Amino acid sequence: xxxxxxxxxxxxxxxxxxxxxxxxxxxxxxxxxxxxxxxxxxxxxxxxxxxxxxxxxxxxxxxxxxxxxxxxxxxxxxxxxxxxxxxxxxxxxxxxxxxxxxxxxxxxxxxxxxxxxxxxxxxxxxxxxxxxxxxxxxxxxxxxxxxxxxxxxxxxxxxxxxxxxxxxxxxxxxxxxxxxxxxxxxxxxxxxxxxxxxxxxxxx
Length: 204
Description:
The protein is of the alpha+beta class and 204 residues long. The chain folds into two domains: 3-53; 109-203. Helix content is 44%, strand content 8%. Residues 71-77 and 79-86 have low confidence and may be disordered.
């Protein structure tokens, strides 16, 4: 499960796991009335309503009673005690959210990965039907070309580096599917005609 919160500064933070949320609560960054969204509920609720934060944040303090009359001269004010006493130190603010850099070109990592997987799977699953000869290169060559070009653009800072893993994986799958599809198809074709050739040679 993941959590999001709306801090006192009005900004939304997350999603984070429960360990990070508990760490924020222990650091005083979450108050009882902080709005928290848990992914499995789909609704916002106060932090004090989440059992996983029990013991890390105090319950919301009740409304303060009416002030007592001013003490007479020379009399010390009463000590603050009981539930709802103000904290001795203010909570530490959240760190500023890092700005996400903008890249001039959109990433195509998902597209490259999909083409590469189609090429690789067709080379392995459809080799017995000789379809891998055609589908493997048809999907693998575009994945190979697009992946190689996009990796150069990522290195040049034109695309987000978050696209690298999908782009590289799709390119590798495309390379394998491009060569393995035809090779597997040829092998399966030879195996299928060997009995015919053997019978033909025995006839003569």
